[in-house]
Amino acid sequence: MMTDSWLPTLKTANPQEGFELASKLARLGVKLTQPSADVRTELRPDYEHDAGHLIAASQVIAVHFQTVAAANDYWRS
Question: Tens of pLDDT along 24-44?
């Protein structure tokens, strides 16, 4: 489990920063699920050439982006 507080807020200045945060959330989710960098590196060839796996990764980022966007009231003032 992560012990450092690295996510004080989901608020971002704009949608691009929101998407970057969503991508980071997805990457960290993978890292928490599989903490071994060696195993992640070993598994990468299995999914980097598989369209289904790449689409699934995009879907995870999209779900995180929905969360970030909602937290930012869709960047409306």
Answer: 999 999 999 999 999 999 999
